[in-house]
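From the methods appendix. Each design record in this collection lists the tokenized structure first, followed by the designed amino acid sequence. Records were kept in a plain field format so they could be parsed without special tools. The example shown here is representative of the layout used throughout.

RECORD:
FOLD TOKENS (359 positions):
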């Protein structure tokens, strides 16, 4: 339980990849104002995120966005209670831009600074009071499915993350992006592939389902991705017809959904052993926006006596609401960070416990 002392608004900044995002939440977690700027146009021609371009774009957009969001919230720096920025994991250039601006604002306002772990921010999103009545209660199972991460994590408290399994090769979003690229859908491919799959027949191609029924909840997508790419090569000498592409997209998406449902089922039985009180399967990350995957995971959760909690689509992908919220959760435990803490490209969730304040 946290001590419910009134807390001033918290400013959150997210710059770990290609979304520049700023949000201000009041002390209860209500969103006062937020902005997300997706740098799609900047990276599209390169078929993926170019770190140097991303860092420069963050540098260009971020200061104005902070001003805008504070103005929309109707407050100034003096009204804030703390400033937080994603400090990792992610692309180091962007992380430096976001954390340095946050530290500058904190210094100018004499405010506490919080260096937020991006994965922790995704992990705690389901506890936003407006999202789930009373916020998701600990312990719960988190299935993090983004472009860079696919992990099953038992979340037992703020800063308390236990990795149950994860991908041994590609992340789920990465697999979507690579297959989409082969289908000529551009980048980022996940949403376009999902749209195309709606026109296809998922039974036309029975693609492999790696790791299905394997013990534990590790994931693998590279074999599936290779099988799909080989099918694309076999199906057409020149370019695929739209119908052929749609059938392949639907078959691939169904294979991913089946694998994820199976892995989630295994993760829930692992939870049952160690945290029998857990009843929630929380999904987060860009791939959690996929409706076929949500359906498959809802069914897996039902069968295990769990409920699926899926944040609204806009909070599945990268945003600053989750950063400010993670900061509020940490502030409630009396946790802040020194200005000397650096941005870090790698920062596994399991190492966070060491940052917990002494009881
Ligand atoms: O969490 P996220 O916004 O960024 C990070 O990677 O942190 O996830 C982006 C990933 C991309 O790979 C994108 O293609 C995938 O999520 N994605 C989707 C969908 N929307 C985004 N994949 C499948 N279906 C979608 N609707
Ligand atoms: Zn993310």
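DESIGN:
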């Amino acid at each position: 339980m946290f001590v419910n002392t009134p807390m001033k608004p918290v400013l959150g900044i997210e710059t770990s990849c290609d979304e520049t995002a700023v949000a201000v939440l009041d002390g209860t977690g209500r969103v006062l104002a937020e902005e997300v700027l997706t740098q799609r146009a900047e990276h599209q021609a390169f078929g993926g995120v170019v770190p140097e371009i991303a860092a420069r774009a963050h540098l260009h957009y971020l200061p104005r966005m902070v001003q805008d969001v504070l103005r929309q919230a109707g407050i100034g720096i003096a009204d804030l209670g703390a400033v937080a920025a994603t400090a990792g994991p992610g692309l180091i250039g962007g992380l430096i831009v976001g954390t340095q601006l946050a530290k500058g604002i904190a210094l100018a306002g004499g405010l506490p600074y919080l260096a937020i772990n991006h994965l922790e921010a995704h992990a705690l999103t389901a506890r936003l009071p407006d999202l789930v009545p009373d916020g998701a209660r600990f312990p719960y199972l988190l299935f993090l499915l983004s472009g860079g991460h696919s992990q099953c994590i038992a979340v037992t408290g703020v800063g308390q993350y236990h990795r149950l399994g994860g991908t041994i090769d590609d992340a789920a979003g990465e697999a979507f992006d690579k297959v989409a690229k082969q289908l000529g859908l551009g980048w980022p491919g996940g949403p376009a592939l999902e749209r195309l799959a709606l026109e296809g027949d998922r039974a036309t191609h029975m693609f492999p389902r790696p790791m299905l029924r394997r013990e534990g909840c590790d994931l693998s997508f590279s074999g599936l991705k290779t099988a799909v790419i080989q099918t694309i090569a076999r199906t057409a000498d020149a370019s695929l017809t739209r119908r052929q592409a749609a059938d392949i997209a639907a078959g691939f998406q169904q294979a991913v959904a089946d694998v994820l449902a199976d892995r989630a089922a295994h993760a829930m039985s692992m939870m049952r052993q160690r945290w029998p009180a857990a009843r929630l399967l929380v999904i987060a990350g860009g791939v959690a926006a996929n409706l076929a995957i949500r359906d498959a995971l809802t069914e897996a959760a039902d069968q295990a006596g769990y409920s699926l909690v899926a944040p609204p689509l806009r909070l599945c992908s990268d945003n600053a609401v989750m950063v400010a919220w993670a900061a509020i959760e940490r502030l409630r435990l009396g946790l802040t960070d020194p200005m000397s803490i650096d941005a870090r490209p790698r920062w596994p969730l399991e190492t966070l416990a060491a940052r917990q304040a002494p009881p």
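APPENDIX NOTE: The radius of gyration is 21 Å.
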